[in-house]
Amino acid sequence: MFGLDCKSITTVKIVECPSTGIKQTFPCNNWLAYDQGDKRIERRLKEDISLRKIYPPTTPWHIWVYTSDKKGASTNAQAILALYGSNGKSRDIKLERNSDTFQQGHCDQFEADIYDIGVPSKLRVSLHKESLSASWHLDRIEMKNLKTHQQYTFHCGRWLSKTEDDKQIIRELPAEGPGISRSLPVVQYIVDVYTGNQTGAGTDANVFINIYGDYGDTGVRLLEYSLQNKDKFEKNQVDSFIIEAVFLKQIRKIQIGHDGTGKHSGWFLNKVVIRQDDQHFEPVTFICNRWFGVDKDDRQIVRELPPTQNLNKITYNIKIKTGDVLQAGTDADVHLKIFGEKDSTDKIPLTTINNKKALFECGSIDNFTFELYDLGKIEHILIGHNGKKFGAGWFLDWIEIDIPIRQEHYRFNCHRWLDKKEGDGKIELDLTPSDIIKKSNLIPYEITVFTGDKAGAGTDAKVFIQIYGLYGRTEEIPLKSKSDSFERNSIDKFKIEAPDIGPIEKIRIGHHSENSRAAWYLEKVLIQRYLNTKSDRSKYLNQINTSDSNIEEYWFICRQWFDKDQGDKQTIRELLPTYDNSDISSNRKELIYLVHVFTGDKSGAGTDSKVFLTIYGERQLIKSKTNNNPFERKQEDIFEIKAPSLGKLTKIKIRHDNKG
């Protein structure tokens, strides 16, 4: 029952219980007044179940903060805490301030509801970033779990200041108390940042890093004071920084980026190395070699990097379907977080892809590809948007995540609004897989294409490849990447997933373009076939050139033009595997097939269409050896086709494009 003593109108009553994590909403939308409506001042409200929200339950804690009895120790800055334990970490705890808090030699007391973090391991204390001119000397903090009545102490005895001590406003304090036999040590991590040697590689922006390990993370730290250089992050320069934190144990990943400020904010990061003075600590290297800039590469200014030596990046292909309902699309900034059995990502911004300006339009399917470290089996995802911009409401139909190297395909059905004005008002959802498909009949291939070093060798055409094996062939596979491919003297790598067609016998490669920039000089192709346990191994054992017994390597030498105006004027070729990367294998020769085509003696029997012939690849019959205008009525046309020996011919397929 809910009542008021004054004249008012009540729209809703919200009841939140931190200990259970349940937030309930009781709509009213009626007067509580003697002289309005039905003149009642007391009403019984019924909960709207659709608006119920469930959060992780919290536990009340009592906090004592002791400011040192030292000259200048006081501060009026906002203090923020983050508590870490065996079950994870808390949200940021902002300690309410007034004119009397954090005075020299005083103790201030606070209450906070905190997620169940288990047995505490450390406490991070920081001053708000707007408090750069403030200084505070913290003696210690004590915290008591009011549910278990266990009390913990976090000793500091240091300045949080931009002018005192080591000029840091963040401190990490090991926990002491029940269930802790030995507190974790505070260590100094040395972070070496290598800026690339590219033109414009340096940055004027503020660079930050967060280091993640088995025992939590360091939190976001600004890389402010280089040990070597006054001007940080210049081209081809190494800058080292000290980050003091409670011991992380094994370092698992880092998040590094910048805030995009400054006249020249774009930055090319070569790598990051994290080390300690302790010789028992092995340095951990994070290779990047990517741009951080809103107008460069994939326009990201923050990246997550796994250690190079023990976490391999794999490809995650993501499809997102926006619904077909009215005004289903969104202009808001959409993000995705993936939770796996091994680890989870941070929130991944789903931004512009392939220069496509509009994403998440009504009825559209948007495709994204990310190189991430292996998360293991996906358990659930978090999808949402920031609710900003006009027309932020979004009707999400479904999400699919495909992991080629793991041969796994996940589908997450949604079929609902993410809109503050629709349904329960949620703009972020946690989804579990609706379907998990294990694609055992597909295997990964890595294709490396070497464009020749000749004038005009590069192409803007859309190149494709088709792979033929002992048990069949793939479809035509477009070779696409984010960057410019097939430039002169370039090497382009493509990771694909395709059916296991057995040992590779030949490839068909080329393009269908006829424009002036389509000419292409192909030097050679390398295909690495990743075998599964059921895959047959190639009988050409000397084609294998790898230390990994589960990978077969096939070389295809070309050294020819793909151009309508050069060489033999072919834009599609069939290539045989070689014994090494120099000469064509002698076990199968390329033959010349003469094809005689007899057009019938019927009225209108000729055609101006493009005619194609398949002798079981596909070839276009372009240049007749006997006539300038092929396929005229009652005419014989002879065409020359170069192809690998096919043995005894069993069938052909002939067709035209129905044009002309």
Work out the count of structural domains: 5
The CATH H-level homologous superfamily of the largest domain: PLAT/LH2 domain
Largest sheet: 5 strands, antiparallel
According to DSSP, the number of beta strands is 46
Overall geometric form: globular
Instruction: Kindly report the CATH topology of the largest domain.
Output: Lipoxygenase-1
- Count of helical stretches: 0
Report what the structure shows:
- The protein is an all-beta fold and 660 residues long.
- It has 5 domains: 2-54, no CATH class; 58-305, PLAT/LH2 domain (Lipoxygenase-1, Sandwich); 314-436, Sandwich (Lipoxygenase-1), CATH 2.60.60.20; 442-588, Lipoxygenase-1, CATH 2.60.60.20; 592-656, no CATH class.
- Helices cover 0% and strands 48% of the residues.
- It is built from no helices and 46 strands.
- The model is unreliable at 1-7, 537-547 and 583-588 (pLDDT under 50).
